[in-house]
Description:
The protein starts with a helix and ends in a 7-residue tail after the last helix. By secondary structure, it is α/β, with parallel strands linked by helices. Helix 2 crosses helix 3 and helix 5 (103-117) crosses helix 11 (287-298). A hairpin with a 2-residue loop joins strand 1 and strand 2. The chain has helices at 4-16, 19-26, 30-44, 60-87, 103-117, 130-138, 185-189, 201-214, 228-236, 246-250, 287-298; strands spanning 49-52, 55-58, 92-98, 121-127, 144-147, 157-172, 194-196, 223-225, 242-245, 259-263, 270-278. Strands 3, 4, 5, 6, 9, 10 and 11 form a seven-stranded mixed β-sheet that branches. The chain has a two-stranded antiparallel sheet with strand order 1-2. Strands 7-8 form a two-stranded parallel sheet. The chain folds into three domains: 4-75, Winged helix-like DNA-binding domain superfamily/Winged helix DNA-binding domain (Arc Repressor Mutant, subunit A, Orthogonal Bundle), CATH 1.10.10.10; 81-162 and 271-298, D-Maltodextrin-Binding Protein, domain 2 (3-Layer(aba) Sandwich), CATH 3.40.190.10; 164-270, D-Maltodextrin-Binding Protein, domain 2, CATH 3.40.190. The radius of gyration is 22 Å and the shape is globular. It has eleven helices and eleven strands. It comes from Limimonas halophila. One of its GO terms (molecular function) is DNA-binding transcription factor activity.
Amino acid sequence: MTSLREMGYIAAVAAEGHVGRAAARCGVSQPTLSGALKKVEDDLGVTLFERSGRALALTAEGRSLVAQARRVLDEAGRFDEMARGFSRPLSGKLAVGVIPTLSPYLLPLCLKPLERAFPDLQLAVREATTDELLAGVGAHEHDALLLATPPADDARLDGEVLFDEPFYFLCHADGPLADRDSVAMAEVAEQPLMLLTDGHCLGDQARELCATVVGQGPWEADFSATSIETLRQMVAFGMGATLLPALAVHATGPLPESVRAIPIVDPRAGRRVRMVWRRRHPWADHLPAIARVLRETAREVPFVA
């Protein structure tokens, strides 16, 4: 019979599409995971993955079996969670998944208030993209998520809105719009913009916003980066302009003198940040208290509502 550990390996490979990344996610060596995967396929007599170089893709049979494995893992994981929830809620470890465009700016503000409010709580934070985090919460890798993209309608999930965060137009001090007190989104879309790569929700949201404003199909940036800090430095050196959320502008200290952060006059230019958790989590009735601390702390930052 396939063990829960083996099912976890299969689910990780399906989520990552790569044995090496899946092994790192599971905390085992790549040979260990590869051997376990081969054993499961041999025992079942079913090919779960198609190999193409280092990448793996699920077969039709694999998709069905992985979906079942995730259901089994979901139910099995509830055993320990139920015991923990019955004993002392909001004590011990809370595994929180956070998107990388939010964690460096929100978490430093919130760690002390959370510690004061919940002294027995220990946060374990993992950064990943929205899709990776949603897969992880379903596999019991996370207790809660902090996201800026509304998850697809999923009866398993519950959550609360934390705050609305406007976008700013970040440009060099010598840029054509640098002396403005505010700019329209239509003006922003005409500038040589640098955005985060595909897969980062902030970059995806900015592209969709620009496409909507200019009334065209897919909108592409002039330059793509993998982090907000790269974009910030590129702007400082006069390589272009970008869109950044309010926390990334106001929660990190003064901007370089060569950079201007200009409010965008458009209600669509922003994002809504949420805390999400499994509806059947044993702390489900208590997690809104954590959301409340996050909400109150974030709203002390200028222009975050």
